[in-house]
Amino acid sequence: MITIIQVVFYKEVTFPLEYILPNGMFLPKKGCRVLVPIKKRKVIGIVWSCKKKNTVRYNKLKSIYKILDNEPLFSKDMWKLLCLASQYYHHPIGSVLFNALPNILRREKSFPVKIFSYWKITDSGMIFESNRLKRYPQQKRALTILQSKIAISSDEVKKLSINIYSLKSLKKKKLVQLSKSSNNEVFWRNNIEVSEKKPKLNLEQSEIVKKITSDKMLVPWLLVGITGSGKTEVYLRIIENILISGKQTLMLVPEISLTPQTTRRFYERFNVPIEVLHSSLNNREKFFIWERSKNGENAIIIGTRSALFTNFKNLGLIIVDEEHDSSYKQQHGWCYHARNMAIWRAKQENIPIIMGTATPSLESLFNVEIGKYRRIDLTRRPEGYLPSHHIFDLKGRPSTCNLSRSLIHSIKNQVSQNNQVMLFLNRRGYSPVLICHKCGLVSECLRCEHYYTLHKNQKKIECHYCNQSFPIPIQCSKCSSTDLISLGFGTEKLEERIRQIFPNIPVVRIDKDTVKNTYLLKEKLSLINTKEAKILIGTQMLAKGHHFSNVTLVALIDIDGVFFSNDYRASEKFAQLFTQVSGRAGRSLKKGKVILQTHHPNHPVLSSLIKKGYIEFALEILKERKESLLPPYSSHIIIRSRDRNGSNSLNFLTEVRKIILKHMDNTNLYLSNPIPSTIPKKKGFFRWFLLIQHSSKIFLNIMLSKMIKKIQNIPEGKNVRWNIDVDPIEH
Ligand code: ADP
Ligand code: ZN
Ligand code: ZN
């Protein structure tokens, strides 16, 4: 008898391969990494299963080179969750498992365990981890000194000449090292302090906190609270209870732009180790956070989508903030939905989960309707009022950048009263089109067949599909004319125009071009919070989650795009964006005002939304979905394919279609022809998809499982890149 080990891989092979465990090597556990040969390469895989077999048939198998882990990298619960995800999303288990691990574990190199010390700045509650200071010699020196001390004054910190991001708040305060027992794991649990500076909950809030903390049923909570109604405060109170019981909390947030503000509130409230997990950390940093939460060394993790896969020693609560946000859905490779998987995870681990939002997704409202979630509401703002809405008709009023005379008047009015104004435009750059005035040629990215956007300040043109950029052309590539003009406007031009109209008023712009990193974001946000900037211009980066107490006027400069979309989700998305954007106004004692500019002031979507408010509106479009049997009243699966000439994808999807048709014994199934994607070409790849719809999720899933092998074996599949998207949110 010999031992056969089945190993799964990240990308190299989509199915498990078998290897022999050489004599003398200990039996690896399921979920450990091993080094094995594939052809002539050494590849890292994960042990999927082990079995004893007869030698004769298996002696052609190769042997494992090396076992890389003594203990499995996944908890039992996580392993089950990922197996389920692999089945549900029809994605190879190897890829799923590796996606759930820190990238660094895809390499063989192993990392020594580090000694960490957490430092707290007393009073403000800021906590940082001194091991982060390791990049430069003077930081290394500082680290040695810090590690030998228990407390250090701000003067001493200055002498160390290290730049701790919170030094500003350090004035006259002391840095204190959080005590750590010899057992790394428990050091924060014996030492929990909750800041006294917390508001008294209002009735709604305290009832919700009571309900959730005393709940035993563990049905997911959908916390629907209008913008600024104190959801975060509710989270903080519930987390307080979780911390006291010695457990950890995972909070998912949609975007990194939201975290500086939220995390500050968390730091200020609790003196426990709180870590932020997001995509701009490097691989080592991510790995160390992962390790620490596995060991129970941190108490709270705030993170974006993939933070869902963090291993915790003792997870007690999951929060999904802004549950409706589309960034929870991965759009490439393994197309999982982090909110939905968070629900599975909470169930698997038997812990409570709270999803919070001002604008719940239709899917979640549907889940409330069928009893899968429980809805609780926060209906009013502890501070401030909900804003009033005004629609400005743009028809027949020529204006640069849609800055109508009445809008300019309103801006002037607010600014003169020392209030702040926010102008929202979801289009970055100077102008979306550069055209030759002589022959009409529009500069276009050939890889995407999409117009270049002009970025005047940065002196470049950029394709917003593939992000490739070039210097601004001097001449037309066709007729050589130098008379190139730009059409339309984006945030950059809007800013230019605003500065012309209001030359003495400070303006700040927040979009992907002006905010390239969190440092710049913090800088801009502080300009806003200190009220130095009076007019704020931004894309949706500015629209979400921020709490600017002095903004009294929000204007949506151009919203007409939404009325021409052929995506059935367009009105849901618009209603969410609109509600979130207008929620930025009137967050303090001053009454807020929202101005919407459109050529379609009587559009039914608009009037219904304003009249009824988000929830009523959403329930109404949910009814429409029911009548037309669209999700969530039916289930969608998309098979996507892309290639460089387009015809291969078409051939592949045609073959997939034939296979499905053969299996299709159920008349309730709808199967489309191959359709070009919403972005039909990107980075030189033509993109197509096939849509399968059925009223039953389970039926659709079983059907696809039955034929997935056949689809994988279609010869045309070798010439394309394809994947499966279950419950897609984009086409
Ligand atoms: P949301 O997360 O729903 O947008 P927040 O929790 O950020 O709302 O609360 C909005 C503002 O109201 C914050 O400044 C917060 O400190 C404040 N706040 C929350 N709850 C209360 C309360 N019970 N009393 C007074 N202020 C509160
Ligand atoms: Zn020309
Ligand atoms: Zn492009």
What does it look like?
The structure is a single chain. The chain is an alpha/beta fold and 731 residues long. The protein has 6 domains: 2-104, GIY-YIG endonuclease; 118-179, no CATH class; 203-378, Rossmann fold, CATH 3.40.50; 388-427 and 493-627, 3-Layer(aba) Sandwich (Rossmann fold); 433-487, no CATH class; 635-726, Alpha-Beta Plaits. It contains 20 helices and 34 strands. The chain has a 7-stranded parallel β-sheet with strand order 12-13-11-14-15-10-16, sandwiched between helices. It has a 6-stranded parallel β-sheet with strand order 17-29-28-18-27-26, sandwiched between helices. Helix 19 crosses helix 20 (697-712). The protein starts with a strand and ends in a 5-residue tail after the last strand. The model is unreliable at 163-172 (pLDDT under 50). Residues 436, 438-439, 441, 476, 478-479, 481 line the site of one zinc ion (ZN). This is Replication restart protein PriA. It is an enzyme of class 5 (isomerase). Component of the replication restart primosome. It holds the Pfam family WHD_PriA. Zn(2+) 2 binds at residues 445, 448, 463, 466.
Strand and helix map with partners:
Layout: E1 2-9, E2 17-20, E3 33-38, E4 41-53, H1 55-58, E5 66-67, H2 76-88, H3 93-99, E6 118-121, E7 127-129, H4 137-147, E8 151-153, H5 154-159, E9 174-177, H6 203-214, E10 221-225, H7 231-244, E11 248-252, H8 259-269, E12 274-277, H9 283-294, E13 300-303, E14 315-321, H10 338-349, E15 353-357, H11 362-369, E16 374-378, E17 388-393, H12 405-416, E18 420-424, E19 433-436, E20 444-445, E21 450-451, E22 453-455, E23 460-462, E24 469-471, E25 484-487, H13 491-501, E26 507-510, H14 518-529, E27 535-538, H15 540-543, E28 551-556, H16 570-582, E29 593-598, H17 604-612, H18 614-627, E30 635-643, H19 647-663, E31 670-671, E32 675-682, E33 685-694, H20 697-712, E34 721-726
Parallel strand pairs: 10-15, 10-16, 11-13, 11-14, 12-13, 14-15, 17-29, 18-27, 18-28, 26-27, 28-29
Antiparallel strand pairs: 1-2, 1-4, 3-4, 3-5, 6-7, 6-9, 8-9, 19-25, 20-21, 22-23, 23-24, 30-33, 30-34, 31-33, 32-33
Helix pairs in contact: 2-10, 6-7, 16-18, 17-18, 19-20
The structure holds adenosine-5'-diphosphate and zinc ion (2 copies).
